[in-house]
Amino acid sequence: MSINQWKFVLVLLAGVSASTLASGVACADGSGDPAVASSDDGKYADKDGSPTYKVGEDGVVDWYTYSGFRRYHSDCHVCHGPNGEGSSYAPALADSLKTLSYVDFNNIVTNGRKNVDAANDKVMPAFADNVNVMCFLDDIYVYLRARANNAIPGGRPPKHEDKPEAAKAAETSCTGIK
């Protein structure tokens, strides 16, 4: 999927979320129950279809959680601190994902956010044009979700599943890098 296709999907999801909220239909708060309800070639989803993590009893994490760790520490930790623990510059995303839904997370990362008033001067830039973030947005979400639920400790996960063929194909399709 190209970056423009991703933008369309995310804008569509954000619109569906906004219209659902406006209609008064109840929606789950936060990231919800992270329990794995389905699996598709190494990618896991919860009962609501949101991406989630899988950590084996031996501490082995799924590929996407590991990839999320790598991508988070490539682009996000500069502001949000190591392991999603926050900094004086930006909030702890490991805490934010306790109350932030998957759709809202995607919307904020894609479109950015401003919280500027007399007490705040916080601006999250939009990453819609950053292939290194957008092509791996689900991975970053899954990693932060695992951190929010204390499913994994801080630091590089010591063991992970092998990269699925589907992940290789998706990466090539989205980034254009073989």
UniProtKB/TrEMBL annotation:
UniProt keyword Iron, yes or no: yes
TM stretches of this protein: none
PROSITE patterns, per the entry: CYTC, PROKAR_LIPOPROTEIN
UniProt cross-references to Gene3D superfamilies, sorted A to Z: Cytochrome c-like domain
Chain intervals for the UniProt region annotation (Disordered): 152-178
Signal sequence extent: 1-28
InterPro entries cross-referenced by the UniProt entry: C-typ_cyt_methanol_metab-rel (IPR022411), Cyt_c-like_dom (IPR009056), Cyt_c-like_dom_sf (IPR036909)
Entry superkingdom: Bacteria
Biased composition annotated in UniProt, kind: Basic and acidic residues: 158-168
Listed SUPFAM superfamilies: Cytochrome c
Domain Cytochrome c: 44-147
UniProt KW keywords: Heme, Iron, Metal-binding, Signal
GO molecular function list: electron transfer activity; heme binding; metal ion binding
Pfam family, one: Cytochrome_CBB3
Protein name from the UniProt record: C-type cytochrome, methanol metabolism-related
Organism: Bradyrhizobium lablabi
